[in-house]
Design goal:
By secondary structure, the chain is mainly alpha-helical. It folds into two domains: 66 residues; 56 residues. Helix content is 86%, strand content 0%. It is built from five helices and no strands. The relative contact order is 0.03.
């Protein structure tokens, strides 16, 4: 199947999902309105429903802005530039180590699963190792 056809199908599926999402949000708003009308007059229920929708929109917009990164970048200070040099060296060492591991695993493919199995057994058998790894991940 050509790439253009796959992209077109993906876009169509996204549009269908958006239509279903909008319908679902509309039904949720109607349900909130009907639930609030049992305890408040219709005008108040409409106000509460609108405020709830506005609050949800603000939360989603703020989340999107945080995820997008805000757009403004500040100039790195001298400390950060020096740290970046250290990060470059660490990245180069990591690349070299990764290349060596990759070469070793290509010649002996059974080593990867064997090491993973041994690490799993060690993790399962040692409460001290579990505690150490849990503390490191925090």
């Amino acid at each position: 199947m050509p790439v253009a056809v796959r992209v077109g199908i993906a876009i169509l599926m996204i549009l269908i999902a958006l239509v279903i999402l909008v319908a679902g949000i509309g039904m949720l708003g109607a349900a909130i309105y009907l639930a609030v009308t049992t305890v408040a007059p219709p005008a108040t229920a409409a106000l509460v429903t609108g405020l709830a929708a506005l609050a949800a929109a603000i939360v989603f917009a703020a989340s999107a802005a945080l995820i997008a990164g805000g757009g403004r970048r500040r100039r790195p200070r001298r400390d950060e530039k020096e740290a970046a040099l250290g990060n470059d060296a660490a990245a180069e060492l990591g690349r070299l180590a990764g290349a060596r591991v990759h070469a070793a695993l290509r010649t002996r493919p059974w080593v990867g699963p064997a090491v993973a199995l041994a690490a799993g057994f060690a993790y399962g058998a040692s409460p001290a190792l579990r505690r150490l790894l849990r503390d490191r991940l925090r």
